[in-house]
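Notes on consecutive records. When two proteins share a document, each keeps its own sequence and its own token line. Never mix them. Below: protein one.
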Amino acid sequence: MERAILEGVVTLLEDGMPLSELSIERIARTAGVGKAAIYRRWSGKEELFVDVVRAAEPPDVELPGTSMRDDLVALLEQLRRRGLLRRSSALLHNVHAQMKSSPKVWSAYHAIVVAPRRRLQIEILRRGQENGELRTDVDVELMNDMFVGPMLFRTIMQPDADLPEGLSEQIVDTVLEGLRPVSS
């Protein structure tokens, strides 16, 4: 039933319906379920839309856990692939554009998708500091922005920028060069 509901939303969006005009009633009718079935799973359409976007994106990557560098590369590679997918998927591109004009949806997306990923990234960097792989005099939030920023900039702010294979490794290795502890 959950799949039918998510597919119902996708169908409506593919037919050109803006997020702002979608109602739970219309989604239920399209999915062939009652409104109660939707409300049992989601508190409102904002949470439902976030799940629609999540379902359309590639799954979260499993980290290799072999080193901080490998985990960071895996996370950036996931961002790179998500950027490529968003470019090739008219639905994802459209939904992301519409989400930005809906503060409640954008806020829900951040809480459910962005915040957990950021917490994981920060955890990896803290582990790197504890293991002596990273300087301890640089704030982990800032370090995270230094790793993730270049990929986000290319995928979001420069939609025509090249996202070649090996870009994740190049970004991580370049940033790590400046964040490794200086030996005395």
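Protein two starts on the next line and is unrelated to protein one.
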Amino acid sequence: MNATAPIGPPEILASLGVSFRLHEHPDVTSPVEVCAALGVPLDQTVKTLAFVTPEDRLLLAALPGHARLRYGALARAAGIRRGDLSPADAGRLARAGMQPGGVCPVSADQAAVVVFDGTVSNLGRVHCGSGRPDSSIEIEAAELTAAVPGATTASIADLPADEPT
């Protein structure tokens, strides 16, 4: 008997009544490829990096697309050691209703630990993963963070020093 596949981020957002647009594009895996496919600048995206803790809990780190993750800060925010961060593989992502290249902070995994960088909620309209590498979600960043009520907010990103104004 096959288990039912978990629902993806678009279905979760729709069930919460959150307003968003789904954009289809060719399969892409990097933030730069997503931007090229959508015609949006990197600083108008939220990338989500997925990790697994030693207890097999999914840890999702959401930060501006043009920022670099501060791994130590993420580990502290999640209450684990930096050395305990391991990248999530495709099988672990599938259990959360997602595929590599489409990771989103909104997940079917109710036990997932989600950490948003403190700058995300102020980014305005952004594009983020949809759970699949062939589509992206366009959403107000504040609505994205509000859709994950149990999330932690922390300073986990290093933003480029010479951002264009």
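For the record: The beta strands are 20-24, 45-52, 58-64, 68-69, 86-87, 113-117, 125-129, 135-140, 152-154, 157-158.
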